[in-house]
Amino acid sequence: MKGQALIGGDPAVLRRLNLEAVLRALRGREPMTTSQISKASSLSRQTVDQVLDDLARLGWVEEVAPGKSIGRPARRYRFRADAGHVLGIDVGTHSVLLILADLDGKLIETRRAVLDGEPTREERLTTIRDAAAGLLAVHPASRLRALCVGVPGIVDGAGRVRLSTPLPEWNGLDLAAEASGWFGCPAFAENDANLAALAEHWRGAAQGTDDFIQLLTGHRTGAALVLGGRLHRGRTGAAGEIAGLAILGWDGSDLADLRGEADTAQVFAAAADGDPAAVERVDRFARTYAQGTAAMVLTVNPDLVVISGGISVAGEILADPMRRYLGRLCLDAPEVRASELGVETVALGAVRLALDHVDRHLFDFRSAPESQPVDRAGAEPAAAPSAPSDERPLNQDVFELRRAATA
Amino acid sequence: MKGQALIGGDPAVLRRLNLEAVLRALRGREPMTTSQISKASSLSRQTVDQVLDDLARLGWVEEVAPGKSIGRPARRYRFRADAGHVLGIDVGTHSVLLILADLDGKLIETRRAVLDGEPTREERLTTIRDAAAGLLAVHPASRLRALCVGVPGIVDGAGRVRLSTPLPEWNGLDLAAEASGWFGCPAFAENDANLAALAEHWRGAAQGTDDFIQLLTGHRTGAALVLGGRLHRGRTGAAGEIAGLAILGWDGSDLADLRGEADTAQVFAAAADGDPAAVERVDRFARTYAQGTAAMVLTVNPDLVVISGGISVAGEILADPMRRYLGRLCLDAPEVRASELGVETVALGAVRLALDHVDRHLFDFRSAPESQPVDRAGAEPAAAPSAPSDERPLNQDVFELRRAATA
DNA sequence: CCCCTTAAGCAGGAACCCTTCATAAGGGTT
DNA sequence: AACCCTTATGAAGGGTTCCTGCTTAAGGGG
Asked: Which portions of the chain have biased composition (kind: Low complexity) (chains A, B) (predicted)?
């Protein structure tokens, strides 16, 4: 039914499976001893030992000093989060935010680049690329495994910019293909609201929730959907564009009234102090806001609605009336939370998306023909033991390692 | 991240993987020779031979007469679609439709049972169970592997009836648990609109489309969502209940006007003949209908909207104005098609859901801890070679077969 | 009746995993 | 300091699975 490959396995597939199992056990946790991994993966200690040996030579794991314990000290291994880096990029109209992170998602370094005036398509690209190159130059030992660029506008599944009002010069640009030529690593492009949703799911208000709606309201309002734990983009990446339905009022004055960022915060502050006029304005905003939201909530019946973007400064002042109105409009109202992630949200989501790609590649023992971006892997870096090559299946690497060892 | 088991593999896992690969190659196709399977699965002919031997002894495949060809005639094998049956049940207010199908989804037999008056909870259950038992009695050799019951109303993920207006006596009933006690096979319960969507995806207007909205309009209007090729139920199974938003008009008179089934067909016929009053009524209906649909379309941005239920008799007479209005309301309007499946739609979807369970069990080489229903498998049927046991992993069966052979 | 073509069957070899037993390396105790 | 206890490490043996190469079998066509 799906594009599931029919291929069944050599014994090598088994090995690959076990490489993955061990890696998965080690990933994101404290260093573990061989025996602990053996228990966790239900493999024999012997096998784990051999697998760890391979992984160590490939550079994916590393031995650390043994811990204190009774009996003979056990060797401990940790996942080498520094075996690769990923880059998340948030492109705004006048500035660009870049985050470099390791494979555990720990932020290594953040950088901001500014763009004055009205840059051309190429100028914008070059500025971003140069900023990224500068950031990478500070960490020369690292190997970039994936990057993701967030764009305000509609981006299709292949990473082409379909329609961006804030960045008109990028309309029609095949951004993913462009960026994958930069550093010889897979590159992705994605709508910024979608990335914000990924960030909330990862480290924000939507942790542990697999079905939620992410509202993003700044100068205009968009929404992103996470369903079944996965981003739902829709046919052309336009899922969540409910503002298109005039009757729901999302383009009406009730919303515009509160969307100028300068004024907004003051109104919310006044409402918090109990100023009747401000309370009334917020309430009217919430009623309209809830109406459009209800249409989406009734459609997908999510667990949660996250309010983010410039409007999220309101916090409970807005979330509270939203709860009230949604409770009236929906048979089965979801939770409502305001985002607490800051300006780094979108870039953080881009990091997550890049990491997802790395994970998919690491942990899908079938050759994973799924949605790989244009991949000009460039020259092989001579397979130094400390620099795992990226776009080949694990078992192939092991195979070549063996050959080299026996020669 | 997901509940992915960490288990890595014995050599037995490899075997299981290859059993599945061969089964998958054979499934739903014409009989194949060993060499053909070898090519399709990229396993060696030798291995395929051995695997086929196991599968034959387990009753999953069968040798058929060799075809005409040059050279030594090759033995040919086919998937034994009759190695098990599934049952799909559509429960209505006054009647119940049952379909028995084989593992290829071929319909074996259909039966209808009627229910007069206002049966109690138990009476309705008993009537259905007896009808099913009668149907199964006609095919004593078959082994029932799963069944699914479709219910008009909200059904949660565990198969409990949350809220059913047409079947009030079933409110709160744990239908899946109830039905899984009937024949010692896994049983599922699901909302009828959801099942209709599965049917359309399988053999109806939505073939080949992985993101679509299924509208179901009879006496009332509901909707089902298929996203990413999978049913999206929502938190409490209430996804698609857009009628709850009054402003969209789905509870208003424009729709009620056309929903009495007796009258409806006449109006559509008159509109097809060009009667201005009828055309006007259909157009007004379509406008309101499109408005509620647009809210969902803008939310999920699907490829297709399927119109089904009593209203689908309209065909193009309704689909056409729907296209027009959706085109105005949506930035990115999807295709619109009227269902052409008949009264068996829901029962057919129930068959599909039951088959999905069988497939998942057959083809997921990990022990598949996912969403298994209450499973009182009952007494083991002494493992006759022609009656594969169902709720155990394939490789365990093979193992026991080996043991018996060497003893 | 012989030749050609294709399939089936039978070793031989390699990769992988598991179990078992002996050995090593610490800490605590006498 | 020597001994014991605990736990980890290392090597050997056995079993399963898969692949490759070779020989044998079974048809059809000249």
From this structure: 375-388
Judged by a CB distance cut-off of 8 A, whether residue B291 touches chain A is yes
The answer to whether A349 and A193 have CB atoms below 8 angstroms apart is no
Of A96-105, A266-275, B206-215, the one with minimum mean pLDDT is A266-275
User: Residue for token digits 């009937």?
Assistant: B182
**Does pLDDT of A370 surpass 60?**
no
What is the DSSP code (8-state) at residue B247?
G
Domains of chain A: residue spans and CATH: 11-79 (1.10.10.10), 82-195+345-388 (3.30.420.40), 205-340 (3.30.420.40)
- pTM comes to 0.85
Coil, helix or strand at residue A95: strand
In whole angstroms, how far apart are CA A223 and each of A15, A153, A231? 43, 11, 12
| Nearest in space to B301 (alpha carbons), one of A151, A300, A174, A217 | A300
Over residues A70-74, the mean pLDDT reads: 84
User: What type of residue sits at position B134?
Assistant: G
Mind listing the pLDDT tens digit for each residue in A289-329?
Answer: 898 999 999 999 999 999 988 888 888 999 999 999 999 98
* pLDDT band at B243; cut points 50, 70, 90: confident
A364 touches chain B (CB under 8 A): no
| Cβ within 8 Å, pair A25-B6 | yes
Q: Work out whether strand A144-151 and strand A187-191 pair parallel, antiparallel, or are unpaired.
A: parallel
Decide: B354 and B147 in contact? Cβ < 8 Å. Answer: yes
